[in-house]
Amino acid sequence: MLNSIVMVKQVPDTANISGKVMRDDGTVNRSKLPAIFNYEDKIALEFALKVKEKFGGKVTAITMGPQRASDILRECLYMGADEVYLISDRKFAGADTLATSYVLSEAIKQIGNYHFIFAGRQAIDGDTAQVGPQTAEKLGIPQITFSEEIIDITEDSVTIKKKIDGGFEILKSKLPVLVTVLKDAAQPRPFSAKRVMAYKNAKSLMDLEKLTEGNSLLYIDKLMHEYKEKKLFINTLTMDDLKLNVDRCGLKGSPTKVHKVESVVLAGNSHNRIEPTSAGLGNLIDQLTQDHIFG
Amino acid sequence: MNNLNNDVWVFIEQREGKVAEVSLELLSKGRKLADSMNGILKSLVIGHEISGIAAMTAEYGVDEAFVVDHSYLKDYLTLPYSKIINELILKENPRIVLFGASIIGRDLAPRIASHTLSGLTADCVDLKIEDVNYVGKDYPKLLLQIRPAFGGNIIATIITPDTATQMATVREGVMELVKVKNPKEIKIHKVKYSPEPADQLVEIIQQHREESKVNLKGSSIIVAGGYGLGSKENFRLIHELAETLGGEVAGSRAAVDAGFIPSERQVGQTGVTVRPKLYIAVGISGAIQHRAGMQDSNKIIAINSDPEAPIFDVAHYAIVGDATEVIPKFIETYKHKLK
Question: Quick check: A123 contacting B, CB < 8 Å?
């Protein structure tokens, strides 16, 4: 029995940014961006599900994010996760990688009983690849980053092929270990239709709060109970649940601060317009030959 | 935050005794940063039989070097390397520590930032020292960590005003390599190390490394394709044009993500930074993250069907048209002219 915890993230689809997303002052209007499951984190989940298939155990997916991040937790359930956790609190807003890894590591300590932590190498909104190693450090466990393949697993060790600059390396680590995986390391399995039917109505505490806006707290407690009974409640952990130090969360707990943001709308540069005709291209080639670039 | 000093440290990455070029580039930048703070530049050399490397860093302006030499440290391993650097940082409180944004640097730096509670910014495209006023408070001589963010739609200047140590990673090729004219003798600090069980949870079973055949940085002509080409088939045109002109093939991040071209040929903030004599960008819209890696090219030709594409803002020559028509014509004309 080998248990895995998978760290997943909902990210803005930065590849599909349109004009409307950028405000006039050059800042990004996040709410206008489509939110998607960070692809490499899906690969991480796939790794965890494969470990389970071979050795038994439990797969738990966790994410830190706002209410709408429960979308990707439902997707984790559709793929085969046994349990999911939304880690959510207004006080987590504005967290950089250090504050994020603090919250995630504390949540992982509370969930406990794990052999593997899996995560994507990086998330497409920041591309930092920092949260994995920072979480491993806070948990005091080894890390293998940029992983391409699990070669072997025993009761207390794992052998992994990972990318290095100019090649690959095969590392053997004691368990527990945190493993970050590359995009091409696996294909995420499709959703199981049966599981989609079973879990499409799964809701987190924040989902229920939204549903019952304006109603009494009593009503939420009742609903929560109902969803738990039906096994449709997405575990939700807030700052109080985790007994976190508020000074280490969110913007306050983030050493990196944004000092300045510049929009990339550039002043138009003067350039020579070349017509895509034989004559136009011929002139260009002549010019570059004169500049000793061609010839 | 006692013992604040103006030390700038650079982690010297070595693989099989060979120093990664990015480390030398960072020393060149580190020299400038140290000068603007009246600080000292120190190299951090970890490995086995590496005293030659430490001495060599003097050529790039280093004042002092930490040398940690042990057979167990011959190859990079996260746990012992991070432990050694953590202990040094907590003892010496350097103001700035720089790492290459290589696979090793990206494995190591965050682990250290987490332990030392330092701010860390990944993939910076520029670093500067400036006096900063941040929310009403003056911070003299802070490190400005400049990087594109949000898929390259904005350029952010990140600061870490309240941490003792400011850390950043930078990709290879971004900073210019500068040797100093009269290198001086450097002071070497030998640091003792002996492996403990906690350092040995991970072992290397096998290592395989090949010299990369791709040398974008050394190429004087680069033809790069983007997502706008639409298919791997159309991307063949990029190869044909590069072959005709005697250049190398490259791609934007979107082209890499779409599988048109392998990631080792990616130009941009999270790829390689190049400065060729001629850069031809085909079907590349020109997100800042791409431009960060090519805008210092001597001459830039942009070919794009969208006349509004931002790539034209950095281009010297603009060709508005469909790549599948323009490129064959370009090749034909070139062959005709230079046969």
Answer: no
A146 close to A180: Cβ distance less than 8 angstroms: yes
pLDDT tens, B232-241? 999 999 999 9
Q: Does the domain made of B221-337 have the CATH classification 3.40.50.1220?
A: yes
Please check whether residue B48 is in contact with residue B71, taking contact to mean a CB–CB distance below 8 angstroms: yes
Q: Residues in chain B, how many?
A: 339
User: How many Å apart are CA B147 and CA A163, to the nearest integer?
Assistant: 25
B32-64: b or e for each residue (b if 16 or more CB lie within 10 Å)?
Answer: bbbeebebbbbbbbbbeebeebbbbbbebbbbb
For residue A235, the cross-strand partners are: A85
Q: Among A129, A260, A271, whose Cβ lies nearest the Cβ of B317? A: A271
Is A115 contained in some domain?
A: yes
> Which tokens sit at A132?
């994995």
In the structure encoding, which two tokens stand for residue B177, read together? 């390599």
Task: Please tell me which of the candidates B160, B202, B298 has its beta carbon nearest to residue A255.
Answer: B160
Residue type, A1: M
Radius of gyration of chain B (CA): 22
Homologous superfamily (CATH) of B8-200 is: HUPs (3.40.50.620)
3-state secondary structure at position B273: coil
Query: Among all chains, which residue has been given the structure tokens 């924040």?
Result: A206
Within-domain flag for A80: yes
Q: What is the CATH number of the domain that holds A241?
A: 3.40.50.620
Q: β-strands A4-7, A59-64: how paired?
A: parallel
Q: Which residues pair with A11 in a beta bridge?
A: A36
> What is the C-alpha to C-alpha distance for residues A35 and A30, in angstroms, rounded to an integer?
9
Interface pTM (ipTM) of the complex?
0.91
Question: In terms of residue numbers, what domain contains A209?
Answer: 4-248
Secondary structure in 3-state letters for A126-180: CCCCCHHHHHHHHHCCCEEEEEEEEEEECCCEEEEEEEECCEEEEEEEECCEEEE
Min distance A228 CA to chain B CA atoms (Å): 36
Predicted pLDDT of residue A266: 53
pTM: 0.89
Q: Are B269 and B152 in contact (CB under 8 A)?
A: yes
Asked if the structure places residue A278 within a domain, the reply is no
**N- to C-terminal Cα distance for chain B?**
68
Going by the DSSP 8-state scheme, the letter that residue B177 receives in this structure is: P
Domain borders along chain B are 8-200, 221-337
CA distance A14 to B149: 10
Q: How far is CA B41 from CA B9, B38, B50, B186, in A?
A: 6, 10, 19, 10
For residue B211, count other CB atoms closer than 10 A to its CB: 8
The total number of structural domains that make up chain A: 1
- Same topology, domains B8-200 and B221-337? Answer is yes
**Nearest Cα residue in chain A from B114:** A134
**What confidence tens digit (pLDDT) does each residue in B33-51 have?**
999 999 999 999 999 999 8
**Range with the poorest average pLDDT among A5-9, A137-141, A252-256, A289-293:** A289-293
Q: What angle separates helix B323-337 from helix A278-290, to the nearest 10 degrees?
A: 60
Of A17, A143, A295, the CB nearest to B153: A17
Residue A292 belongs to a domain: no
Q: Quick check: A289 pLDDT over 60?
A: yes
